[in-house]
Design a protein that fits this description.
Blueprint lengths: L24 E6 L3 H10 L5 E7 L3 H10 L4 E3 L12 E4 L6 H10 L3 E5 L6 H14 L3 E4 L6 H11 L6 E10 L2 H4 L6 H4 L3 H18 L2 E15 L2 E13 L2 E9 L5 E8 L2 E6 L4 E6 L5 H31 L8 H19 L7 H15 L23 E4 L6 H10 L4 E5 L7 H8 L3 E5 L5 H8 L4 E4 L8 H21 L4 E5 L31 H20 L3 E6 L1 E3 L11 E5 L2 E4 L9 E3 H13 L8 E5 L7 H12 L4 E3 L3 H17 L10 H7 L8 H6 L8 H8 L8
Parallel strand pairs: 1-2, 1-4, 2-3, 4-5, 5-6, 7-10, 14-15, 14-17, 15-16, 17-18, 18-19, 19-24, 20-23, 22-25
Antiparallel strand pairs: 7-11, 8-9, 9-10, 11-12, 12-13, 21-22
Helix pairs in contact: 1-10, 3-4, 4-11, 8-11, 12-17, 14-15, 15-16
Length: 730
């Protein structure tokens, strides 16, 4: 495998000259987020590549990812990569960082493979292309949808002349957005109205470009918009009509939708092809010499046969992968794999890159044409003020930008309590928090639990600490580091600065709540689940964090109070709450049992009220104690799904299922994974299945009797605050 291409300066931009086989590419991944994992899993399987480093400004994330793939180096800055001999860097950072980091890497003599979008303007793309040409370095862009299996088959049939001359392309992309459902409005794609085109629309637009060439003109009609926060507009439905070099196109884009539909239809002079990209299926129709009635029959028959063939192939690929008989072949992974492999294959052979900077610039022209005339009025940029000194009675909130934290900060402000928020992502702050920070009423400290210096700064002079930060991960190592060690670090800082109360927000998931738990009601003083190894990672993390904090209370006098909210609901949570059951699809909920047991529901604002009451509570009789925060509205899982159906107009269904049936199905999945030799597979926990049913009610006596906490429990009032908030806005 070639390390760095050594093409002469006057060589075509998209062509590179291979080095000797003894000089393998030395690769680094810049950015240790979600997508970097996919890059590394593919790179680890390519012969002739040496994985040298992971680079991320959060060193702990870089170290974690490097350790998982056995990579020797984890660094914080890209200027450290050249001294490590890196020849190619995969750029997996947010899009607004692409241009500056790409330029820095190229100027350091390092070629780049960049996640889409390449940059945020075609002019920037061409400037970087010129820089790469001067330095004889490669630029590849990960337009992985060009390697989607159904699209690859479609292009092959178009190229073979099956449908004649291409005349028109029609695209439908209607998808849910997890970040939108979760209220993660600080994500880059929501920060400005135009960003969604670069984040999501670039996928179909690169395919349209591949079929009909450069855009000549486009007209965009906005079909729907919504306001995420005051002044933060999100355009969720778009219609684009365009003319290009070799045909015309119509593109319908819809984001945050309940039903997924992703299709691309090519109309030719002599036939048509339609790719269903979501299901990885392809079917077509061409002219025949038969009479119309028989031609119509053949068209439907052949289309049905093609769809059945593709459906069987997708099913067999999944079963073979699950059983360990073949490699992973789902459409998304194949697209990523082939995009990355083809880039490195081109480097090693000196052949044209599959998507170079010029092609990426032309795709960006499609984005720019789509956006022409669309207003990009975004909320004013927030510049955090320099953190002021703490005031008497300062309440420090860890995790203040989340679903619960934003409400806690707002209520602290309403009560006139001086407050500080330790913030990892300043751009994710809600407008209300930004407003109180601008006036100086809220003190903002940038940092995280993994950063001792920022913890020190935040807690210096603090009176109360409200620890709401969750942490998490898909392995125990990640959960233990983020949730447990991060919590211990916060508690150590609280001890050092002699805070008056340290409140840890845990969860009822730390308790065993099965029908055989031995009590008729779960009191506040109930012990943690003594079998954490039989619970999922989140529960294990909360159990371990609570246990560590209780040791610090007993041994070193940490002024600790633990709160355990129940099933927390309110505007900002996903409609498909796991407390109701297992959502097999976003409109089909399979119950943890029959769904006829009242759930320990609680409105998020009531949880915030309890935390503010604790921050104002002067007595020490709550040290070393835990408070459950659950209302008792007599609403079951089946009730909640039915009420959501009425409020939203969605076709939602609740399916009761006996716990034993759920366990047997989990065992069946386990047996398949074992047969497939999947690593790290644990036998499904019967104890955890029983715990998920939440079959035993909670009393929450301490919060009610000591703090005077009064949660919303009347049925209609609670439904108004937790369910009807999802009703469509007219």
């Amino acid at each position: 495998m070639s390390a760095r291409p050594a093409a002469p300066v006057d060589a075509p931009e998209h062509c590179v000259t291979p080095q000797s086989a003894s000089s393998p590419a030395r690769v680094a991944v810049v950015g240790a987020g979600f997508i970097a994992d996919f890059h590394l899993s593919v790179l680890a399987g390519i012969e002739g590549i040496t994985l040298v480093a992971v680079c991320d400004r959060d060193r702990s994330r870089a170290e974690s990812l490097a350790q998982r793939y056995g990579i020797a180096h984890a660094v914080e800055r890209v200027d450290e990569l050249a001294r490590l001999g890196v020849t190619v860097a995969h750029l997996c950072v947010p899009p607004d960082l692409h241009r500056s980091l790409a330029q820095e890497l190229l100027e350091s003599g390092i070629g780049i493979f960049v996640e889409k979008p390449f940059v945020l303007a075609s002019s920037q793309a061409r400037q970087l292309a010129e820089l790469a040409r001067e330095r004889a370095l490669p630029i590849g862009v990960n337009h992985n949808n060009l390697h989607h299996p159904a699209f690859v088959r479609l292009r092959e049939r178009v190229a073979a002349g099956e449908i004649g001359r291409v005349e028109h392309v029609q695209v439908t992309l209607s998808v849910p957005l997890m970040q939108l459902d979760a209220g993660d409005f600080g994500h880059w794609m929501f920060r400005e109205p135009h960003n969604i085109v670069f984040e999501q629309a670039v996928h179909p637009l690169c395919q349209v470009h591949a079929l009909i060439g450069r855009v000549q003109s486009a007209t965009t009609t906005l079909l729907g918009s919504r306001e995420l926060h005051p002044g933060q507009v999100f355009h969720d439905r778009w219609s684009i009509a365009a003319r290009a070099e070799r045909g015309t196109a119509q593109v319908y884009l819809a984001f945050g939708q309940g039903f997924t539909r992703s299709t691309l239809q090519v109309l030719g002079s002599d036939g048509a092809l339609e790719a269903d990209l979501f299901h990885n299926q392809l079917a077509g129709e061409t002219k025949t010499y038969w009479l119309d009635f028989w031609n119509s029959f053949l068209a439907g028959w052949k289309r049905g046969g093609a769809l059945r063939t593709d459906a069987r192939r997708v099913l067999l690929d999944y079963l073979k992968f699950t059983l360990g008989l073949s490699r992973r072949e789902d459409a998304f992974y194949v697209g990523m794999r082939e995009s990355i492999r083809s880039f490195h294959d081109a480097l090693s052979k000196g052949t044209p890159l599959p998507t170079d900077a010029t092609a990426a610039a032309e795709v960006l022209e499609w984005c720019e044409a789509t956006l022409r005339g669309v207003p990009n009025l975004s909320a004013p940029k927030f510049t955090p003020p320099t953190p002021r000194a703490t005031r008497p009675g300062e309440v420090v909130v860890l995790g203040g930008t989340g679903f619960l934290g934003t409400r806690v900060l707002a209520k602290l402000h309403e009560r006139g309590l001086p407050s500080t928020a330790l913030v990892r992502r300043m751009h994710a702050l809600a407008p209300g928090i930004q407003a109180t920070a601008r006036t100086g009423e809220l003190r903002l400290v940038p940092g995280s639990l993994e950063d001792p210096a920022s913890l020190e700064h935040a807690l210096q002079g603090a009176d109360i600490v409200l620890h709401l930060a969750t942490g998490g991960g898909d392995t125990w190592e990640k959960v233990e580091r983020a949730m447990v060690q991060g919590t211990i670090a916060a508690a150590e800082a609280a001890l050092k600065h002699r805070v008056r109360r340290f409140v840890y927000v845990s969860s009822i998931a730390a308790l065993y709540t099965g029908h055989d738990c031995g009590v008729r009601e779960i009191e506040d003083n109930v012990e943690l689940d003594p079998r954490p190894e039989l619970r999922p990672l989140y529960s294990r993390g909360k159990i371990a964090a609570e246990a560590a904090l209780m040791r610090l209370w007993k041994e070193r006098g940490l002024p600790l109070t633990i709160v355990r909210p129940g099933v927390v609901l309110g505007a900002g949570t996903p409609l498909q709450h796991s407390g109701f059951g297992l959502w097999a699809r976003d409109n089909h909920c399979i119950g943890w049992g029959n769904g006829d047991t009242p759930l320990p529901l609680v409105w998020v604002d009531d949880v915030a009220d309890a935390l503010v009451l604790l921050a104002s509570y002067d007595k020490r009789d709550l040290d070393g104690r835990a408070l459950n925060l659950c209302a008792r509205p007599s609403l079951t899982a089946a009730d909640m799904v039915a009420e959501l159906r009425r409020a939203t107009g969605r076709d939602l269904h609740f399916h009761p299922r006996a716990l034993l049936v759920s366990q047997l199905m989990e065992i069946g999945k386990w047996m398949v994974k074992i047969a497939g030799r999947r690593p790290g597979v644990e036998f499904p926990s019967w104890r955890d299945v029983k715990a998920r049913a939440l079959a035993v009610p909670f009393t929450s006596r301490t919060a009610r009797q000591v703090l005077g906490w009064e949660p919303v429990e009347e049925r209609e009032a609670l439904l108004e605050r937790t369910v009807r908030v999802y009703a469509p806005k007219r």
